[in-house]
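Memo to structure team: turn this sequence into structure tokens by end of day. - J.P.
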Amino acid sequence: MLWNRWVQFYFHLPIIIRLLLSVTFLMLSFGYLIHLIEPDHFPSTFDGIWWAFVTGSTVGYGDYVPLSSLGKIIAILLILAGGGFVTFYMATLSAGTIKLEQDLSKGKITYKGTNHTIIIGWNERTKQLIEMFKDHNLDTDTVLIDHTLNKLSYQDHQIHFINGEPTSDKTLKKANIEQAKNVVITSDPTLTEEEADRQTILNIIAARGNNPSIHIISEILTEMQKKNATRAGTDVVLRSNNFMSSLFYQSLFQKDPQATDIIAETLEEQQYCSELIGEDLIHKDFYFCAQQFLVERKWLIGLVRENEIILHPDFTSPMKKGDSLIFLRPLDHAQNRVK
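Reply from structure team:
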């Protein structure tokens, strides 16, 4: 009964482990056997095992050789059995490594890390966000979930790819969402705005259902779905259409349309940042803080107070302890992101 359990346990192991155990057992057995047959030429069991591994792997250093007929027969059996096992093991190990890399690129491998950021959707915004992660050397792993990609090279993008529907619990568990820190849900560019927002809301519900405490940032295209996204459980709603509409308006109706290009290009070279105010700025007004920040090439635009974002507050508004100031600064100097 016990023997059957061991056999079942052995055959349930991965083939690489089974081959490694088989090769090890074979070499140990032949090493001990040659030590018993020729104790003068193989004075210790370790010497016999060393000879078995060298001979079975076809390396053949020649520092130990059997001299008796029985010893030579043992060597022949070792070469026939051990050589085949070792060759098969190396071939299987190589094939397994290649298959693992292929499965990783095809999004079939489960992510095992923690405190990572999950991004849903592969598009230009996602690519830019990943590049910003790299440029600022952020100490966080990135997991991408997308159902439109068939393959994504880990070497080229340095992200863990999961292929599947982001509303599927199976897919989210493969991304280890239960131990993730953030989820960024981008809008699907292949859908209409209404369809994309509905899909985003379903993604929010699925993510929140699998991790009630995770921080969710989502992109919503239409105003009518903004409240629904909040009800679904997102922490932050980003409206990219608002900004683009403003630029279009300025380009159409202002006296100098070329200024829109300058504004857009300038904003592309900036990054939104936040910084907890120091003791020296408590009770100072917003105007005073703006002047102080300009000295460091920081363009102050608002503040965060008690989880509420206040843009362009009154210049006379006094700062309170615990406030965070929101500002823009060039990308090459930016360090802290708005959370």
